[in-house]
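User: Hi! I'm working on a homework problem where we have to compare a predicted structure to a textbook description. Could you give me the structure for the chain below?
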Amino acid sequence: YGGTVPPQLPAGIATCSGFGARGGATLNGEIITAHNRHTPYDPRNYLQVYIVKPPQGNTCWVLSNCPQVAANKVVNDKGVSVILFAGGYTNVNSLNYNGQSYFAEGFGVPWFHLLLYIGTHANTAEEAIEMLTIGTPGYRSRTGRDSLLRGGGWLFLVADNDTMAIVETTADRYAVRLPGEYVNLLPSAPPGEDWTSPDYIVCTNTNV
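Assistant: Happy to help. Predicted structure tokens:
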């Protein structure tokens, strides 16, 4: 939105949340990822699954809003899963943070293209995280950038059998969160909850 006023969301809309679990957090130790679509009763609530089989690259399936070909979640035949969540917007606080202006949006690579490219080209979750954060070597070579310029603020849950992570992004900034990190940020966690477990990670939108 380039620093303009973000759109007003309908009352009660929560958009998306999801989780990844493995090891002791699942019945048989296999990895599970799940994506909850919290949308109002409008066309965005009608979903379909596409199976993509490119001449070169990985076969993948995509859970998407009708009629988009790439959105929400992609899983490929290498076992890489990427889930999309709404991110933050440029707001009055980000425009004056420690005397500087930060924009969530930019004229960068749209997440539609990112999801399809990752689905067809990433062989591991680590490769997917690299594509989401610093881009491919070819992208960096052609643009002269040392990180990927994205189209806006989005969150991604990335997983395979070896790696689970949340990638939090704006157009030109990112952070990678791993299971069990930031436990000190949860002083009010319910007693007995193991927030340091490496076996699960949770993500929800920051569309607030």
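For your comparison, note the following. The CA atoms of residues 158 and 191 lie 28 Å apart. The longest strand covers residues 47-52. Good luck with the assignment!
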